[in-house]
From TrEMBL:
Residues 18-130 form the Schlafen AlbA-2 domain. Keywords: ATP-binding, Nucleotide-binding. It comes from the Bacteria. GO terms for molecular function: ATP binding. It comes from Bacteroides muris (ex Fokt et al. 2023). Pfam families: SLFN_AlbA_2. InterPro entries: Schlafen_AlbA_2_dom (IPR007421), Schlafen_AlbA_2_dom_sf (IPR038461). The lineage of its organism: Bacteria, Pseudomonadati, Bacteroidota, Bacteroidia, Bacteroidales. This is ATP-binding protein.
Length: 213
């Protein structure tokens, strides 16, 4: 099998466009902002970050080593826990493109520290970085509990199933209202059903809803 040249490899990646496992960055000027992307990839399926490539796929090139330092700072200082990644520079048409491969984390959630010092967790959905919901955070937190846990089936669980069947999909707020539950209890029940593959989160209209699988 023929080995691709740097130019062929980068053009093949660019031809895929931006998607759930790939993002283009013209340049990196803020380590905190790029930490959000690292968090999203690490919390989802991992992915590649192409630095020195414009949103339209045009190659601008990386102008200095500053981008590498920004990635190091984003992964080590502004992500918690630290994000695992590899970096490689490719020479394309006389310009350097930095490809950062981010691994999916086995220690979710991975939080990114924002400009105010607050730690937030993100997900990668299609070509966007989306703030994880409290339900996602609970799913990750509960996933660390003992395996073989039995699901306690009470009137609350039955009501959730009934509401999902009647409404097709529910937002967290609507579920709280219809079931007369606190947000904490509603988040816990939805997370439990997501973990057991009964319910799935769906991102539509810039909001998360939940539906039966």
């Amino acid at each position: 099998m023929k080995t691709l040249t740097d130019t062929e490899y980068i053009h093949a990646l660019i031809a895929e466009g931006e998607h759930q496992q790939q993002d283009f960055k013209f340049e990196i000027s803020d380590a905190r902002k790029i930490a959000k992307t690292l968090s999203a990839f690490a919390n989802t399926d991992g992915g590649k970050l192409l630095i020195g490539v414009k949103d339209n796929g045009k190659i601008a090139g990386v102008r200095s080593d500053e981008e590498q330092y920004m990635i190091e700072a984003a992964a080590g200082l502004y992500c918690s826990p630290e994000v695992n990644y590899t970096m490689q520079t490719y020479l394309v048409e006389g310009r350097s493109v930095l490809v950062v491969q981010i691994e999916e984390s086995d220690r979710k959630p991975v939080y990114a520290k924002d400009e105010t010092g607050k730690y937030l967790a993100y997900l990668r959905i299609k070509d966007e970085n989306i703030l994880a919901t409290p339900v996602h955070l609970r799913v990750w937190q509960q996933s660390g509990s003992l395996k073989g846990e039995l699901i306690e089936y009470t009137e609350r669980e039955q009501l959730l199933l009934n509401l999902l069947e009647e409404n097709n999909r529910l937002s967290l707020n609507r579920y709280c209202r219809l079931a007369h539950l606190s947000r904490r209890t509603a988040e816990h029940l939805l997370a439990k059903f997501v973990r057991y593959d009964i319910v799935e989160p769906v991102f539509e209209g810039h909001k998360f809803h939940f539906r039966l699988k």
